Predict the 3D structure of the following.
Amino acid sequence: MLDRLNQCMEHIERHLEQPLDVVELARVAATSEYHLRRLFSALAGMPLSEYVRRRRLTVAGAEVLGGRGTLLEIAVRYGYGSGEAFARAFRAMHGVGPGAARRDGSPLVSQARLTFRLTIEGSSSMRYRVVDRSDFTIVGMKARVPLVHVGPNQAIIDFVRGIDRQVVAELEGLADQDPQGMVAVCDDLDPSRAEGTELDYYHGVVVTAADSVPEGVVALPVPAGSWAVFTTSGPAPEAIQYLWRDVFTQWFPSNPYRSRPGPEILRTRLSPDGKEAEAELWLPVEREPARS
């Protein structure tokens, strides 16, 4: 998989003057567009679109300083419809406008080309299993919250604290599927998975069918499919956030699976003082197609 990602990086460099074609990049990587975006974001620490934008402005910056063509010609070459749009993007990255940069020879910011390499540590192993599930339903309370990569998500904390305890008790009585008990569910995430983008968050339970639910509770039908199930324990919330990271930076590149659209389900059990957690993470997956 890392070899294919590096082929994608080469493809991007050869087509910086053309619109980003994620479908073609996914073909080069021999995976789905959905999985490519998620895997790249996890490995690179930024969305794919942001990396391409920064690479274009890096190369454009060199052309601005080198006097290669007019500023408008450079703007059009790198996909900007006007000199004003190019100037805004240029200033946002480099801290100076293209005109001033050319006139004064100002220092610019450079986004280095990415190359992916595998570092083998061998100091730990990841506990997982892959299960096939028939369709089921998630029922619970729902909120739209921002994505937070590291540290507590205050929006989720406030939302969960505001749920009536009686509603929680009624929901717990409905659970009849693994993972058992109250779960946290993330769905409808932005493809970039960038910090601050929004997602649907459910605090609820997994049931066979939502025949009767408490008032005000919403239902999320989930179609049949395969799920990779990961377990971890350690300090909260770091252990859980690191698990998410490690799944995409270590497990997916080393196994013949890719992520598929669907909700991500997390069951967490906290220690009495709330400082330690045991967690089980369910991610929707499918096998990578065999390469011809």
Residues 120-124 have pLDDT under 50 and may be disordered. The two ends are 15 Å apart (CA to CA). The first helix runs from residue 2 to 14. Strands lie at 127-133, 136-146, 183-187, 198-207, 218-222, 225-235, 257-259, 264-270, 276-287.
